[in-house]
Design brief:
The structure holds 2 protein chains of 2 kinds. By secondary structure, chain A is mainly alpha-helical. Chain A is built from 15 helices and no strands. The longest helix of chain A has about 40 residues. The chains are: A mainly alpha, B alpha/beta.
């Protein structure tokens, strides 16, 4: 099949699908039916596409890790950052020398790369724990929070976005747009405090902070093979009260973080669905007597989903950024919470490890998102 | 015969920021079963709005008055579309009246299979089982001429060619067996050979399925080919209505006469080409050609090690000084690629292409840049080839400033005014922005910009295909005049044989990346040797119903001969 020179995935849906299709199809000619190209199968192309995308992760991660390293080191060495001014200069120099921070940066960089390649992220400077252990323990907590927040973002953002698009420029649309702006313009620490004040302090419905109450935490600690994902651990205890406790703790942080993204999703769905609602194929379906509900739900939504999915990948990065604030607001002991702790303690090794992991997660998410977009859009094939 | 739709005193107006705008004014039309009514007119004449009213597809900003009485196919029920509720409208759409759209690529949802979309229409109107609906979808795809329908029913729209997509759109209209089909420019986006096939299919809809058809078009050739009756619309009003033969033989309204006179006719350019050829100096043939291609090959690279796509394979042609070469071919034939390669916008990958004495195969941008001032380019879509943030004068002045003929747009203004005058635009238009000009005016400005540096070579890529017929006629006239005056050589690219014929000294026919025929207009159009050229020529509908019926027979013979 001849490839169209256009990029296969575009960020914004254009109503003119012709640009993507006309160059890939041969002109019909009844005179030469034998020459008509056989329809291509979609399976083989997709496998190749996935492999290519997966291979692209390697340079992405390499660049991210290098950036983190350079940025962290450009502010000086960790020992001066922590102890500068507290120790005499000669003792400081001695410690720096002992830790190897006075060697050329390129040597340190290569050593760092070698360590990462063997899975060794070093030991934290402040509490002497392996960074790998911190990543696994607290990563699970952040993963859980991000998952619930995404759930909130989808459940709120997509239906409201569809409604706003259908009632474009009418009352429903205007109020939903204001809601969206409030969602993504309100800082998480403010909305978090507000939620806590209303639901925990005034109404007393939900816990104020943390990931679980002490008793629930104890029960989960006793599990032989705990995952660190409290929801799964709670289910494994077999005690509904523990699960309820864990879920109750997740509600407010998930809403605070999820609404931030929901606002973006809402606007994104609205804009793209408005675009697809005005296309010919929606009018064509309408001319065949298809109901308005189906037009929005089937004909406008799914093509609009392709650019939406692509942007979601970018949103995950923002979500993780928001997680740092959410976790500190709700004392949710995840990577973000630890990141701010280690930053305050000037623990470079720990910060470097956490930031690198977040970068890898973003790269992986984008990979997954590209695959999903390819599955939805029958035209994307490499 | 029974009436399927009866439009009575229809008026449609749109609410805009500047107040209500009347798009359709007091239009009354009737369509019988088994009859094709063509509504012709230029853009903005209200023909599409009239068509959309029949399906109740007007946007919320529109208000309709009058009545559109629609009957079902059996003639047992009548309803007035203008006053139906949303729910009643939905019941009528698809079952009583169906629509065929201009652009088949955008009328099909790209993320669902064609079978899914046909079945959806069926199930919107009856509680047919999924299995029966699928069987019906396969049957209808077969009837509109999609080969291997059992298999193709599960394919996505992008896996079909443009003509096949339009067949599928027509299949969707046919599957519910409505009494009336509204076809809005059904062949405008298609190549002329495909157009003939789609017109045949619509003729079958009328004859075999007994449908009434409202055919919206600006193409008088299409009207002559298919229509039984014609209504000519101008500025929202019907200015003339007659049966097709009468209208073409003796048009009554001034507007109709002008419209028919503007239609390009194959054979009109031959005389002037001969005249031009006679005036050329004797040593003209020996002069160095402006463009010389031999064995020209252009391959677009594939991605990630996939094989590239060969757009042009082994093409030879020359353009001599002051000569217009018309390049004709259908979409995907490589004609635009050749134009872009000459202008240095696309890389030449094989063979030789000499432009103004420079070899383009392996050329470096830095070497080529000085040559650019000697080449002008006119793009197809005047709406998108102008920077919307610059005034017309600034756009036209741009080449002058870039190539150092003026220090800034203001200094170039005198020259810009001369150029605007040359393309017959008032000087004051220089201060306007592109969106304030009509399509024809923009294309004139585009010509002015291309001619700003007095190029020796002008590449015009489908410069009139986005324009109305009467505007096209004036732009073509202007082009011929400018060519006489400035004496530039030109590559004139078009899919329309009749347009190329008006301007070209020689015509080259391109088919799937190779040149199948080349010669003077008289040779290529008068006595085509290549079967593709013959088919292309026979597919071109002429604005005369009697002559067109004969040509149709001729085309059928040619097709059977292949």
């Amino acid at each position: 099949m001849a490839r169209s020179p256009e990029r296969a995935i575009r960020i914004r849906a254009s109503p003119d699908w012709r640009t993507l299709t006309s160059t890939t199809t041969a002109p019909a000619s009844s005179a030469s039916p034998a020459k008509r190209r056989p329809p291509k199968s979609s399976g083989g192309g997709l496998g190749r596409y996935i492999i290519v995308r997966a291979l692209l992760i390697i340079p992405t991660v390499f660049i991210l890790v290098t950036l983190v390293f350079v940025l962290m080191r450009s502010t000086g060495d960790p020992i001066t950052a922590k102890l500068g001014g507290q120790l005499p200069a000669d003792q400081l120099a001695e410690r720096i020398h002992a830790a190897g921070y006075d060697r050329p940066i390129i040597v340190q960089y290569l050593e760092y790369l070698g360590q990462i390649a063997t899975g060794n992220f070093g030991t934290t400077l402040t509490d002497n724990r392996p960074v790998t252990e911190i990543l696994v323990t607290y990563g699970a907590a952040t993963l859980e929070l991000a998952f619930y927040a995404l759930l909130v973002a989808f459940v709120v953002g997509i239906p409201f976005g569809l409604i706003a698009a259908y009632f474009r420029d009418k009352g429903q649309d205007a109020s939903l747009r204001v809601f969206a702006i409030l969602c993504y313009a309100t800082p998480v620490f403010f909305s978090g405090l507000l939620l806590k004040l209303i639901f925990s302090v005034w109404l007393g419905w939900l816990p104020v902070a943390g990931r679980a109450s002490v008793s629930a935490q104890l029960q989960m600690e006793l599990l032989p093979n705990k995952t660190g994902l409290y929801t799964i651990d709670a289910i494994m205890t077999g005690n509904p009260a523990v699960l309820g406790d864990v879920l109750a703790h997740a509600v407010l942080p998930a809403i605070a973080l999820g609404l931030l993204t929901a606002g973006v999703f809402l606007r994104l769905v609205r804009t793209n669905v408005i675009g697809t609602l005005s296309t010919d194929y929606v009018d064509a379906a309408r001319s065949r007597g298809v109901s308005e509900y189906r037009l929005v739900r089937k004909h406008a939504y799914r093509p609009a989903l392709i650019p939406i999915i692509t942007v979601i990948g970018l949103q995950i990065a923002l979500l993780l950024g928001g997680a740092v604030l959410t976790e500190t607001t709700f004392e949710w002991k995840g990577l973000g919470f630890m990141l701010s702790e280690y930053l305050q303690a000037r623990d470079f090794v720990a910060v470097q490890g956490i930031v690198a992991l977040l970068a890898v997660i973003v790269a992986l998410t984008n990979f997954i998102v590209d695959i999903i977009a390819a599955l939805i859009d029958p035209r994307v094939r490499y | 015969m029974s009436t399927v739709v009866n439009i009575e005193r229809l008026g449609v107006s749109f609410a805009t920021d500047a107040g209500a705008v009347k798009a359709v004014d007091d239009v009354s039309l009737k369509v019988e079963r088994g009859e094709v009514l063509a509504i012709v007119g230029e853009s903005g004449s209200g023909k599409t709005v009239t068509a959309k009213t029949i399906l109740g597809l007007l946007p919320d900003t529109a208000t309709a008055s009058g009545a559109v009485i629609l009957s079902n196919k059996a003639g047992t029920a009548e309803s007035d579309v203008v006053s139906l509720s949303k729910k009643q409208l939905r019941a009528v759409r698809g079952t009583d009246v169906a629509m065929v759209f201009q652009e088949p690529s955008s009328a099909l949802n790209p993320v669902y299979t064609v079978g899914w979309q046909i079945i959806e229409g069926l199930r919107a109107h009856s509680s047919i089982s999924a299995k029966d609906a699928r069987a019906k979808a396969i049957e209808i795809l077969g009837r509109v001429g999609i080969p291997d329908p059992e298999h193709r029913v599960d394919h996505y729209p992008h896996q079909f060619s443009g003509g096949q997509k339009q067949r599928i759109v027509i299949a969707m209209a046919l599957v519910l067996d409505p009494g009336l089909i509204v076809a809005d420019e059904p062949t405008t986006a298609l190549d002329v050979t495909v157009q003939a096939e789609i017109l045949d299919l619509l003729r079958r809809c009328r004859d075999e399925f007994g449908m009434g058809i409202v055919l919206i078009t600006h193409n008088m050739g299409v009207v002559a080919d298919l229509a039984d009756r014609v209504a000519v619309m101008y500025q929202g009003k019907v200015v003339e209505e007659a049966d097709a033969k009468t209208l073409f033989a003796s048009p009554q309204a001034e507007y109709t006469k002008a419209l028919l006179a503007a239609v390009p006719y194959v054979g009109t350019g031959t005389a002037s080409a001969i005249e031009r050829a006679a005036k050329r100096p004797a040593d003209w043939v020996e002069q160095t050609p402006v463009v010389e291609a031999s064995g020209l090959e252009i391959v677009y690279p594939g991605r990630f090690g996939k094989p590239g796509f060969q757009a042009v394979g082994g093409v030879d042609f020359v353009i001599r000084p002051g000569e217009v070469l018309g390049l004709v071919g259908e979409s995907g034939s490589g004609k635009t690629t050749i134009g872009r390669a000459i202008a240095g916008l696309t890389k030449v990958t094989g063979g030789s292409l000499r432009v103004l004495g420079h070899e383009m195969n392996g050329v470096r941008e830095r070497e080529f840049r000085p040559l650019r001032s000697r080449i002008g380019f006119v793009f197809q879509d005047p709406a998108s080839s102008f920077n919307p943030l610059l005034t017309i004068a600034e756009c036209v002045a741009e080449p002058l400033v870039i190539h150092g003929r003026a220090s800034n747009p203001a200094a170039a203004r005198k020259r810009v005014d001369e150029l605007l005058e040359a393309v017959q635009l008032p000087k004051a238009y220089g201060d306007r922005y592109p969106h304030e000009l009509s399509g024809g005016q923009r294309q004139r400005a585009s010509l002015a910009r291309a001619l700003a540096l007095e190029p020796e070579l002008l590449i015009a890529d489908e410069p009139t295909s986005a324009l109305d017929v009467s505007v096209q006629a004036r732009v073509l006239e202007l082009f011929a005049e400018l060519q006489r005056e400035f004496g530039f050589a030109s590559l004139f690219i078009s899919h329309d044989l009749a347009v190329v014929d008006i301007l070209a000294d020689r015509i080259a026919v391109l088919y799937r990346g190779s040149l199948v025929e080349e010669g003077t207009g008289a040779e290529v159009l008068g006595a085509p040797r290549d079967p593709y050229t013959q088919r292309l020529l026979a597919s071109l509908p002429v604005p005369d119903p009697v002559a067109q019926a004969e040509r149709r027979e001729e085309l059928r013979r040619l097709r059977e001969a292949v």
